[in-house]
Design brief:
The protein has about 325 residues and is an alpha/beta fold. The protein is about 20% helix and about 25% strand.
């Protein structure tokens, strides 16, 4: 029987609560490079208390991180999705190994104590697969460049994305963990800044927008110091809707950042009048009103978890 070569998904985290994800790469996958996969019961990091008590199953060998791919990886072949490794422990047979040959030891016999005969093995399957990563998180922070998303993620979690006073400081998604009572952990993803026309792949738009697809609910982060800040929300929803129908209609909250600036005070009342819904006004720099955001984030998560349980599915756990 030819051995099966598999991909397995694993959630990779660090102790500070930041998820590091690699960008999409082309990989020529050959059987010699794909190692046999055994399902591992310890597919989450030691930071996940609910799975720390799991013991290794008999006959199963733990895999090193080099043999695993992050949760949320899509496997494509010729532009077609052949596997979606969106859950911990999901496996995919990427290539089949060739039948092994027989060495000279196989031909050892009483009348042939030093055989020199052998048979060659058969070549295995070769495929070229494209691995595309889509970040998995509960909440996704969506906003234009320099809206303060990275600063906000640093304020509510232990994540430490780069922060600077110029746009496009964040070039890849960062995931921070927000802790609540009862060992509840909510993952919040900092999506790199989206610009107008992102759905047409302007400014690496598709590379950033695809990470929003797996977010269960959204946080629209608005720079309150800019003129007519309500247009930011309209433009962001338009870009999401043009990229994927129904994406802008997911549960969300409007976060108005930079209330500590003088010009932001004048724009607040106009923003509330134009949107006609609750706006969470805060300052990521000074920490003003962060409690309201954390409470609203918990409300969004509870609604998501209730909906998942109502459909017989378990909510995403970190």
């Amino acid at each position: 029987m030819a051995p099966a070569r598999r991909f397995s998904a694993r959630l990779r985290t660090v102790f500070q609560g930041v998820g590091h994800w690699a960008l999409s790469t082309w990989a020529g996958l050959k059987p010699s490079r794909l190692l046999p996969q055994q399902a591992s019961p310890r597919l989450l990091s030691v930071g996940c208390a609910d799975l720390a008590k799991h013991q290794k199953l008999p006959g199963k060998k733990p895999l090193s991180e080099k043999k695993l791919v992050p949760v949320g990886t899509l496997v494509k072949e010729g532009g077609r999705v052949v596997a979606d490794l969106s859950c911990v422990g999901v496996e995919y047979i990427a290539a089949l190994g060739g039948a092994g040959g027989k060495g000279n030891r196989f031909f050892l016999a009483n009348n042939n104590r030093a055989p020199v005969t052998c048979t060659p093995g058969q070549p295995g399957q070769q495929r070229v697969l494209h691995l595309e990563l889509k970040t998995v998180a509960h909440a996704g922070m969506v906003g234009f460049p320099n809206a303060g998303k990275s600063s906000l993620l640093r304020a509510i979690s232990n994540a430490r994305p780069a922060v600077a006073s110029y746009p496009f400081t964040t070039l890849k998604p960062h995931v921070g963990i927000v802790h609540y009572e009862g060992h509840l952990q909510i993952a919040v993803a900092d999506i790199p800044g989206i610009i107008r026309g992102a759905h047409q792949n302007r400014g690496l738009g598709s590379a950033f927008l695809r990470h929003i697809e797996r977010c269960r609910f959204l946080l629209f982060v608005v720079d309150l110091s800019q003129p007519e800040p309500w247009t930011q929300v309209d433009d962001l929803k338009y870009e999401l809707e043009m990229y994927e129908k129904g994406l802008s209609a997911r549960p969300h909250a409007i976060v108005a950042n930079k209330i500590d600036l003088p010009e932001a005070q004048a724009n607040l009342s106009q923003l509330q009048d134009h949107l006609g819904q609750e706006v969470i006004v805060l300052s990521a720099l000074t920490g003003e009103n962060l409690e309201q955001l954390l409470l609203h984030l918990k409300v969004l998560y509870d609604a998501y978890a209730e909906a998942e349980l109502g459909q017989g599915r378990q909510p995403l756990r970190w």
